[in-house]
Amino acid sequence: MAATVPVEIDELLGQSRWIDRLAVPVQQIVRRLFAGPTGLKARNILNGVWLGHPLHAALTDLPVGAYTTGILLDYLGLLSADRHLQHTADLVTGAGWLGALAAAAAGLADYSVLEDEQRRVGLTHGALNVLGVLAYTGSMRERLAGRRAAAVALATVGYALVFTAADLGGHLVYHLGTLVNRQAWNRGPAEFTPVLPAAALGEGELRSVEIGGFPVLLTRVSGRVYALGNTCTHWGCRLDQGHLEGASIICHCHGSQFDLRTGAVINGPATAPEVSFDVRERDGHIEVRARPY
Ligand code: FES
What we know:
By secondary structure, the protein is an alpha+beta fold. 51% of the residues lie in helices and 16% in strands. It contains 8 helices and 10 strands. The structure holds FE2/S2 (inorganic) cluster. The site of FE2/S2 (inorganic) cluster (FES) has 12 residues, from loops.
């Protein structure tokens, strides 16, 4: 019974629509931070486009690991009055504090494109982390002033807040599917398979066809036919409802841009590449074969 309580609280947050009154305006402010070409470049870096998976998930290991080590050393240092332990605790906690700032920046970029339930839980997750950073900021100040007991007390409060926020972060990903690759289980045919008469696909057209239940996007650019999976890896929107830009397709939902030639992500928030296909025309038909993912 006890194991189910946190999940129920997480789900309650997701269903609490009153949180939208704050979550939506905060998201609008965050979006303005990432507006324009420079904002887009910054968001790509913070989303983790260059890394091939969400950066926030990797960065959070630093504060969580450092804070956990720091709080253990804090109590050992307090009980033993060992100056070396206390000094090490200060260094480790300081590293966690810096890591938390970096993780927060990446988290803001992710928050800018959340929706509905995910946005409500995301706001709560972020607010708890902000409170955690404030508590740790106070703890750092007390350390510098040499007030050990107050520093450890504030670090304990900060750790509890960050731990609760981390639990919500897990709920966001594992229960609500936030930033999970929507093509993780889809590949398409391993052999060339006819999908459409070649004459049925005009220049610049976006067509969705299905192969064994797997939706595939077909388009023709400068006479050449391209095929990608039709489900955006970011949030699952249909790519045939997006628009072309040169040899790339831009998703209409949050603007992820994929290279038609390779499926590579050009602009996020998607970080996972799109499923891509070899394409050939045989006997008047377009045939596609999935490439290794
Ligand atoms: S679903 Fe978000 S960019 Fe495509």
